[in-house]
Design brief:
491 residues; alpha/beta; Rossmann fold; 4 domains; 7-stranded mixed sheet; 5-stranded parallel sheet; 48% helix; 12% strand
Length: 491
């Protein structure tokens, strides 16, 4: 990983006395400093607030460490919360004014120095380990335990590759401990190893209660229709694979799915992880608020965690409700600014799958070109899609779709959402079970007649969505013009 430390090496070789090192992983920071010290021939040590005296007066304790003049660099993980204090910042400036003193490296999760301190610092963002780095570390860690690859087990490399992909993004301490557990409890890297890795991922996300890993995301077969969206995802996956080989194709940024509620936006967002064959993380925007930590800092922590877990899909569900209306947009400006900046600038393989029902509630800067690779409009399912959706849900309740008159059912469900079709099948199944009778076309049509579709009660809102999408979004189901397609009674 030496080449990824180039920015840090340059900063440590320059005249700067304070370096803000943006990093989430303490072990990663220590290994980076150790690597640079070997290359540059400098000594270093760590300083923290472990003692009562240091905690009560951190500057005095740090001053004594500097006066010892025993090392070239001092790495601290405990000053991040102090450097935003203007008084502390002024005192720190005076402290580093001593000639020929050591370089102070302050590890931070997000840089927030006081204005007075900013001219005196050098900012360096430490890249997260790549998947190749994780592969090398895992294999080296396994071999260090005495683990040996069995030549007769032809499936072992495949299982190992899957586990490594799951372990990618773990903190280095947790990664090393997980590797040791694998070697001890399941050296064949089977089901128990899989559960050990899942447990490690759950533990890492435990402190971030607003970010969770979705285990076993739905398969692509569970989507009815949306063939344009599915084709786009597969092309993006192929382009990403070629880009990894040729280093010419940038990783996809993500997609925004807007449209009628209950038509598969959330399901499609989850399925994207199955298409890309990567982990799925869900960020709950509504839970970012509250507590002593600000929502912007919480969001930054979540985004940093997603970057560590890359390649992955980051699912942002119903961001229109989370980011609020125009009236509450002012209080959400910090969140919006943080998210849009990250969407524009991040270079990691984090594919963002965001969904929204009310596009009029979204801040304009969030839907501007360049934030997402594509904006898709998901509308009421057409005939073909309704047939696909009904077959999916008939299979889910262990019924044979070929045993019913699917065409008659399609005719009776014009302008019904996918969620409504699912509810109809489930309700009919319950009625059939209670009456000890088979699930018939007549029973399904009867349930349809008792169901009031969303379009009848929210026609104006749906029309407004379609008008917005005419020149701003691509249909997830057809390449025809949005309004021209949706004006027809049944696509």
């Amino acid at each position: 990983m030496m080449h990824v430390y180039d920015d840090l090496l340059q900063a440590l070789s320059d005249i700067d006395r304070i370096i803000l090192l943006q990093v989430q992983d303490e072990r990663l920071a220590q290994e980076a400093i150790q690597s640079c010290s070997k290359q540059l021939g400098h000594s270093w040590t760590t300083w923290d607030l472990g003692s009562t005296r240091a905690a009560n007066d951190p500057l005095d304790s740090l001053h004594q460490q500097i006066d010892k003049n025993e090392t070239d660099w001092i790495l601290s993980f405990d000053l991040a919360d102090h450097i935003s204090d203007p008084v502390f910042a002024r005192q720190l400036i005076q402290l580093i004014a001593v000639p020929d003193g050591p370089v102070l490296i302050i590890a931070v999760d997000a840089p927030r120095p006081a204005p007075a301190l900013q001219p005196y610092i050098r900012f360096v963002k430490l890249p997260v380990p790549s998947i190749e780095d994780t592969i090398q570390r895992v294999i080296k860690g396994l071999k260090n335990t005495g683990w040996k690859e069995t030549s007769t087990d032809k499936e072992l490399p495949i299982r190992l590759a899957r586990l490594v992909r799951m372990m990618h993004g773990l903190s280095l301490v947790r990664l090393d401990r997980t590797v040791q557990r694998l070697a001890k409890h399941d050296p064949k890297l089977g089901d128990e190893a899989h559960e050990l890795v899942q447990q490690a991922r759950r533990e890492q996300l435990h402190d971030l209660e607003f970010l969770e890993m979705v285990e076993n995301p739905p398969a692509e077969e569970q989507i009815g229709g949306l063939e344009v969206l599915q084709g786009w995802l597969h092309r993006r996956r192929r382009a990403t694979q070629l880009g990894v080989l040729k280093r010419t194709v940038p990783p996809p940024r993500g997609m925004l799915l807007v449209g009628v509620p209950g038509c598969g936006k959330s399901l499609a967002a989850q399925v994207s992880a199955s298409v890309f064959q990567v982990p799925l993380l869900r960020l709950e925007f509504g839970r970012l608020r509250g507590g002593t930590e600000g929502p912007e800092r919480r969001l930054l922590r979540c985004l940093a965690e997603a970057e560590k877990a890359s390649p992955c899909v980051l699912w942002l569900d119903e961001i229109d409700h989370a980011l609020g209306t125009i009236e509450t947009h002012r209080e959400n400006q910090g969140l919006v600014g943080t998210l849009t900046s990250w969407l524009q600038e991040h270079q990691t393989e984090v594919f963002v799958a965001a969904t929204a029902n009310r596009v009029d509630m979204l801040p304009p800067e969030l839907v501007r070109k360049g934030r997402f690779d594509e904006i898709f409009f998901v509308d009421l399912p057409n005939r073909t899609e309704r047939a696909d959706i009904l077959r999916v849900h008939m299979h889910a309740v262990e019924e044979d779709a070929d045993a019913i008159d699917i065409e008659k059912l399609i005719d009776s469900t014009t302008q019904y959402t996918g969620a409504e079709l699912e509810a109809i099948v489930r309700e009919a199944k319950i009625e059939a079970t209670l009456s000890s009778s088979p699930l018939t076309t007549e029973l399904l049509v009867d349930v349809v007649s008792q169901t009031v579709p969303l379009v009848r009660t929210h026609e104006k809102e749906i029309r407004k969505m379609r008008e917005w999408a005419t020149y701003r979004a691509r249909s997830a189901s057809t390449d025809k013009g949005v309004l021209a397609y949706f004006d027809s009674p049944d696509g």
